[in-house]
């Protein structure tokens, strides 16, 4: 999840944000010196044995092993001057490509029920559209190992690493990419057979389309509203087509999609601000949710100039609205909006308290989001497929006492509990992330892991948050 505001203001404000942040950190961690555990009200559905707890990663962010796969749009984007804050790339990352066995030991040691990973399309497919056996074996070995240890595999088919040769044909601006995605889904799900517990077609189509093709802060770095909206439609079409393939090839897995939500709050209760905020919510959140759940775009589509609207062919919306076995929700923060003289809405900077990446910590928005989605839509079971925090970890005496991250998890798990109290059916929760990794445009500077990675030695160290998460899970 990333918000455009970060790019509008972060570099100028970096010093400010950091200093406010560190004061806040001291204040918060003083108050929470004793908080080393995560707890939930007794009897909470989140404490039931069959509630699924997991950790999540994504291929490009952890694997490395770039020489053994085709280039993807993130390789190209990283190679362009000024796109990644620390000028890094995914060539090595966490070396998961060679260290995966140790990483599965680590996952098992945390006692989680499930592991959410993504498949690198350019690793498993050749340019001519066939499976690459070496790449496929990398994943089937991982999946077999997970199965042997009774860890459920939640597989995401697309977490942003589009093969570069497909981008060269227009990428998600080309309708044909949706069909290429369905073809890759067909071949890879057949190859995986019975090894998978759950599939997600896409991770966060908002980020792929808006950040990648509309404001250009993510790969492939294209700018223009018409491009963002067009890419979103082709991504959603690809989701629908892939769901049809999954229904045929893999009817016994839980099949769905992962969407990210950044709930929109109005700065004032004035009619204009409320209207602008509702527009922002439709544009950022419901633009992806409503087609998937109800087969239509939010009505605001009519307010966009014709040239900015996607080309919707007959039958597309029906394809997009396939039944889902579950909905994956990624949640990190909320945003504030007000009316604008020049645009549909104006997005405001994050408020304190913030994490190290500058995102407001506001757990109540998770409860309010889920309750409002449950009111608007007929929801399938929800899995929180990502939630977590970048914190300025300090490695001291061989330990990382990230009490601030523990606090973040504690508050969000309890916010999730509150949503279940209000009737939302939630079946699982995944911490983002298993380990520190390549945080997209932020490079390796922001650490989201519950396990620390020393990028010089690749040594993994479980943080206090990892221990607390593990205790919560294993003490059920
Ligand atoms: C996303 C992605 C993750 C990020 C995480 C923190 O939501 O952007 O799914 O890959 O690393 O969200 O930004």
Please provide a written account of the structure.
The protein has about 475 residues and is of the alpha/beta class. It has one domain (about 20-475): Glycosidases (TIM Barrel, Alpha-Beta Barrel), CATH 3.20.20. It contains 15 helices and 15 strands. Strands 1-2-3-4-5-7-10-13 form an 8-stranded parallel β-barrel, surrounded by 5 helices. The chain has a 3-stranded mixed sheet with strand order 6-8-9, with helices on one face. The longest helix has 28 residues, at about 5-30. The model is unreliable at about 5-30 (pLDDT under 50). D-gluconic acid binds next to loops.
Strand order of the largest sheet: 1-2-3-4-5-7-10-13
What is the name of the CATH architecture?
Alpha-Beta Barrel
Number of E-type strands? 15
Q: Runs with pLDDT <50, length 5+?
A: 3-32
Compounds present?
D-gluconic acid
What is CATH's topology name? TIM Barrel
Treating each run of at least 4 consecutive H or I residues as one helix, how many helices?
15
Helix-strand pattern: HEHHHEHHEHHEHHEEHHEEEHEEEHEEEH
CATH H-level name... which superfamily? Glycosidases
Q: What share of the residues lie within helices?
A: 40-55%
Distance between the termini: 30 Å
Q: What average pLDDT do the residues reach?
A: 94
Characterize the main sheet. Answer: 8 strands, parallel, barrel
Shape: globular
Strand content: 5-15%
Which structural class best describes the helix and strand composition?
alpha/beta
CATH class term: Alpha Beta
Radius of gyration: 21 Å
User: How many structural domains can be distinguished in the coordinates?
Assistant: 1
């Amino acid at each position: 999840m990333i918000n455009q505001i970060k790019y509008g203001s972060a570099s100028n404000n970096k010093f400010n944000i950091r200093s406010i942040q560190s004061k806040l950190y001291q204040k918060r961690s003083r108050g929470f010196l004793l908080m080393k555990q995560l707890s939930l009200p007794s009897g909470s559905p989140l404490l039931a044995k069959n509630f699924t707890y997991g950790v999540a990663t994504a291929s490009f962010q952890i694997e490395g092993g770039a020489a053994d796969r085709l280039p993807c749009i993130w390789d190209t984007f990283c190679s362009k001057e000024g796109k990644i804050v620390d000028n890094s790339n995914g060539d090595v990352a966490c070396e998961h490509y060679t260290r995966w066995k140790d990483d599965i030991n680590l996952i098992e040691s945390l006692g989680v029920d499930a592991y959410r990973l993504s498949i690198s399309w350019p690793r498993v497919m050749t340019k001519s559209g066939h499976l690459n056996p070496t790449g496929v074996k990398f994943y089937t070995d991982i999946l077999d190992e997970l199965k042997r240890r009774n860890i459920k595999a939640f597989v995401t088919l697309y977490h942003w690493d589009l093969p570069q040769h497909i981008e060269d044909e227009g990428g998600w601006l080309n309708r044909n990419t949706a069909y290429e995605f369905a073809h890759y889904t067909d071949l890879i799900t057949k190859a995986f057979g019975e090894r998978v517990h759950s599939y997600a077609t896409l991770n966060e189509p908002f980020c792929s389309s808006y950040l990648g093709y509309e404001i250009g802060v993510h790969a492939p770095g294209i700018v223009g509203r018409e491009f963002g909206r067009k890419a979103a439609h082709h991504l959603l079409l690809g989701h629908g087509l892939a769901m049809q393939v999954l229904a045929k090839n893999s009817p016994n897995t839980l099949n769905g999609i992962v969407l990210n939500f950044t709930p929109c709050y109005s700065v004032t209760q004035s009619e204009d601000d409320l209207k602008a905020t509702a527009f922002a919510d439709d544009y950022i959140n419901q633009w992806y949710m409503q087609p998937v759940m109800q087969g239509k775009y939010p009505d605001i589509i009519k307010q966009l100039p014709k040239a900015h609207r996607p080309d919707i062919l007959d039958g597309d919306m029906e394809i997009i609205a396939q039944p889902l076995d579950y909905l994956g929700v990624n949640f990190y923060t909320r945003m504030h909006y007000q009316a604008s003289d020049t645009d549909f809405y104006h997005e405001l900077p994050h408020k304190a308290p913030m994490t190290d990446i500058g995102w407001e910590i506001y757990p109540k928005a998770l409860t309010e989001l889920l309750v409002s989605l449950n009111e608007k839509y007929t929801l399938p079971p929800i899995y929180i497929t990502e939630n977590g925090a970048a914190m300025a970890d300090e490695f001291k005496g061989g330990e990382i006492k990230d009490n601030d991250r523990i606090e973040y998890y504690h508050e969000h798990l309890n916010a999730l509990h509150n949503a279940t109290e209000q009737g939302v059916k939630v079946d699982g929760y995944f911490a983002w992330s298993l380990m520190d990794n390549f945080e997209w445009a932020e490079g390796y500077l922001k650490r989201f892991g519950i396990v620390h990675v020393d990028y010089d030695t690749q040594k993994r160290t479980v943080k206090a948050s990892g221990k607390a998460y593990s205790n919560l899970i294993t003490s059920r």
